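the two lines:
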Amino acid sequence: MGRLRQKGKAGAAKAYVTRSAAIKRLQCSLADFRRLCIIKGIFPREPRHRKRANKGSSAPASFYYAKDIAYLAHEPILKKLREHKAFAKKLARALGRGEWSSAKSLEDNKPVYRLDHIIKERYPSFIDAIRDIDDALCMIFLFASLPSNDRISTSLVENCSRLAAEWQLYVMRTRSLRKVFLSIKGVYYQAEVMDQPITWLVPYQFTQNIPSDVDVRVMLTFLELYQTLLGFVFFKLYTEIDLVYPPPLDLDKQDSGAGIGAFALEERNRDDMLSSVLSASTGQSNGKRVSSKAVRQAIKALAESSVTAEELENDVPSRDAESEHQDEMFVLRPSASNPGDAADLSTLHSFSSFPQSHVTNLFEPYTFFLSRETSRPIFEFIVRCFGGRIGWSSTTGSGSPYDETDDSITHVILDRPLNQRSDATGAELNRMRRRKYVQPQWIVDCINSGRLLLEEPYSQGKTLPPHLSPFSGREGAQELRAGITGDSAMDDMMEKNETSEEDEPDGDKSDSERSADKALMATMEASHSDPGAMRGVELQAEAVGVDYGTFEKKLAKTQKKGTKVGEGVNGVEDMNKMMLSNKQRKLYEKVRYSERKRQAENAKLEERRKELRKVQKRERKPT
Amino acid sequence: MASHVANRKRKPTAKEQLDASDVESFPGGSLDSLSSDEEEDRLLHESDKSDSDSVDAFPEIDTDSDSDTEGGDDVDDVDEGSSANDEEFPGSEDEAQDIEGASSENDLHIFPKAKTVVSDITGQPKKVYPEIEPDYDSDSSTEDAPNRIGNIPLHWYDDLPHVGYDIDGTKVLKPARGDELDKFLKTVDDPSAWTSAFDKNTQMDKPLTAEELDIIRRLEALENPDSNYDPYHPTVEWFTGKGKEEIMPLSAAPEPKRRWIPSKWEKQKVMKIVRAIRQGRILPSKPKATSSIPQFYAIWNDEPSSHAPPPLTAPKLRLPTHSESYNPPEEHLPTEKEQKEWEATDKEDRERDYLPQKYSALRLVPAYGQFIQERFSRQLDLYLAPRIQRAKLNIDPNSLIPKLPSPNTLRPFPNYKSLSFPHARGRVRCASISPDGAWVVSADEEGAVCLWEVIVGREVKRWSLNEKVGAVEWCPRMDASFFVVGTEEKLYFFMPPNLPPAIRLATKALLIPSALSSTPATPSLVKWVNFPHEPAPESPHLSVDLPASSGLIRQIAWHRKGDYFATVCGHHPCPTLITTTASGGGQGAVWIHQVSRRHSQAPFKKIKGSVQLVLFHPSRPHFFVATQRYVRIYNLAEQKLLKMLTPGIRWISSMDVHPSGDHLIVGGYDRKLCWFDLELSEKPYKILRYHSRAIRSLHFHPSYPLFVSSSDDGSIQVFHARVYSDLLTDPLIVPLKILRGHDVREGLGVLQVRWVPKQPWLVSTGADSTVAVWCH
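prediction for all of em together
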């Protein structure tokens, strides 16, 4: 006989801990526990047997891994939280007693925790962090647009807007924006950083207020973590492209509403760069001598870094120079003494410099001007991400590189109904003729389709074509194409077919003809599989006196029927289904369920589309 | 010691004296009471407690004053005499004084004073009391008789005219109490009435004494009820205070040095801090600004400390679809009905959290009201929702369907309906095909039995029995040709017309032998009835009468040799009308008949359950009996049960055995079909459920690897069933074809299916009173 096993000493009862037990074990308050869980990324688990995990009780409870809780118990932040509790007591006491000086010194020595180690723990490598910044970006952009109040401090909002601007600057600089979608919830952006798609949602520019049913404490705790995370991520991203982090902020510009223009991207210190380049090259030559090429490069890099930040951002030649410089490095590297390393590096390098399939210089040749009713932060960001130059009227903020009268402007983005102005001067008319006036959706649709679309359907006052989501996969892409090119041709084709089919059953055919037709059909049906028989049928048809066009049509029809017969294969499958065991049948039904649901949804949409098309046509016809 | 004894002796007397004082019978006493009121009060007070108090607590009164006040009394003389004695005997002074005190305090001379005389015998002084003279004063009869009921709740006497009993046992009557008016007048008249209280014991008002009133007053004033208590008593200093100071120290040790020299260790500690401040290790006032700004650095430059996989990342949010666009294609916009439905559902139950909307221009798009809520709910999901890594089943559902050979490769099997033979009316319950496969005999519920050709459907002959026909079956013999029709309680043997003469003769010899074998010795319940040698063409050649009320013959099963056949009778079971008490259901339902001997016997004396079907094994002397739920296999030769199969069907409707004899299929009214491998197990090898209604009939083809099932849903399902002779390969069952063509009437579809013996053709009878032939 084995040893008696005591209940609750092993298995699920030991592996799981309820929340209240966890709090008791950690000796902290529920609020502190929540804060810890958020910061450490610990979440409840679903045990396979709730009752077993709860030691026989079936009362509702949320379970955590006992190991997670043990992990929390060693957390330095927990200690800091306890210290903070003591501090709060001391402070309240000092304030209550009116001991202002000791209160002040307490306040000065308030325990503060840092989250650096948490970031390192939760994201052991940089790529892990990059994969998980979607939510962080959403929150940062949301809080950047919130008004500050007693719960949300001004410094927090400022920090969020600074982080948001830094991210946008990075995306613009590396031109990594891929997709944009204007939805009813806000603007979805998708960028590709280190081959990871990063999607974030930015609300439209309206004043948001935090509703009462939302726990701000939770949001602020998340925000605390996200700010730190993004700080480290941006630091790494900026330093990888040799920029200074944090980018210096021009306060004057910010006060005048320059938005992201208030930040200046700055190359890293030239001395640093020189030394790094030198060290890299010497490292490659195994410290024998400093190669002349390396020196030349260093000098070149110095020359580049002296270009101002603004130029760096906007000018394409600098990018060209960069790529030249990269090419040269590419030439240099194989000459290094340890070929294995160099080969590795060079392949890496070539990967990064390889022109991606996505077009990132879509708007490079064009110069845009934003009309004052359009949202500047959205379109400034988008256009600059794709290499375009953009200006705006001074009413929407300072920092516009040119004003409306500039002759280089090729496109004006405007979002107002068409109204004829009669008092336009000759110069204005001239300008208007040279420029193209488009609605904002054009920009976004161009980006999503990866090419420049015709401006005509998007011009001022036109009813816009539907704006489709670029995230809907392959099927979505097809629809997108159809929607944009206008599938009227296809429509017409279909309609013709329909009408011809409707017209076909004429009453003037004689019975004999009909019977002949029927016989023909029967033979067709029988022989549509092999070409030899088909030819025979054709001849027969000629003999009967059916002209080629009608023959073709009938052929198509019978083939359709044939496919229906082909469903007989499906029928066999259906019959084979009866040989499934009960378990397998259930699985089969489960798998088929979602498929069918999706199909039904698509079919519904398709049907509605057809109906709408018919209605449109009917409306068009009388006119 | 002696004094104590004396005191104890004296106690009751003191009480009596008190009582006496109440009466005030003694003038001297009254005098005394007048003179020393205060003393008397104290006495009263003390005497109440005298039971518990020691006598020592009695106040001491000096006898002199007493003697002063009183004069010329003889008892006093005695007293004086005694005091004189006191002087003589200083040892007994106390006790004498006590006695005197006691006597003087009462001043009632009820009890005469004792004389102390020196005993002649012991030589010790002793007290001698004078004799009590029983006179008027000594009696206590003048006292009020106290109520002697004892410690009894007085409310027991509430309804009685008396209140207790006196010493003689006579009732002490309640004193008359006046009415309310009297009471009022009393209060008016008597000024002390308001300070009197009702005494229950005596049932009359008694005025409260001054002390009692004083106690009441004190209680009302929240004072201590004891009048002697002095709250302002000065403290009595016992150990401290003036003149009691401690002069000498406790220890003679000199005062230590540390009391007046600064601490060395403290100095060292302070100097440590001072040095730290000087060296800049401790900043006395830290600048705050540097600590609050987070410093970022290259945190990911060094290798991760552990190579454990990173924590499970949260799933990303769903990406937006077309319907979320500010300008979606119009088909995505909800109809009014959908919109209402969306608004009516709860927030948690909604399939999507937004309603698609269309705006003609971007400037018209408003702020999204749920933005912050959605962010918040996402965060709640991140830290409150349990996360599971679930392996998503990404398989093609079609891969689950077993790969079976195509039906086209398994031809021939019946494919289409070649002809249908109509019956006049009534459901066609049964049909049978002759062993040579040329003729079909079918019978309906109206009693019409039709004989027709399989190939062309030409009717050759028709018999009308005017009875409900339950079963019809050809004899499997090739050398004779006849069939048996089972009706209610009767079996008829018919011979088809136009037989070849040889067969005709053989059949006749079988059915109407010229020399009948002797009638069986034991009288049987079953009667075999002969018809004349040349019967009318309409009439049967032979009939068997089953015992009365055995019900309709439902099934006839021939043994392969064609001599024996078994019948099952009983009413047609209908699962909806469960009347299992049908007479045929039980043991009397099964009969085995032998044609050559014209003998019938019931094989089972007793059988559990109602028998539905029976079958002969095609090669062995085994007999299958299907009851409602189980199939039992008996060995007829050894007369014992071999096996009991449990198909798990609620009600078995049909059963057939494979021609090899190793496999059995059983169908049930609950739509299940079970395939048994008889050599394997009592449990089914395969259970199929594909008909949508009850299975009615099953049949294995005698030569082709086919079997068929028919159902109340009007369909016939043809299967390919290949059985391998090696034991390792499982039988192969391939569904081949679903034949539809029979109508469903009153919930009944295809009632019986039978294979044509030498062709892959099928004959099916339906409730729509047609018989169909299906050809390949």
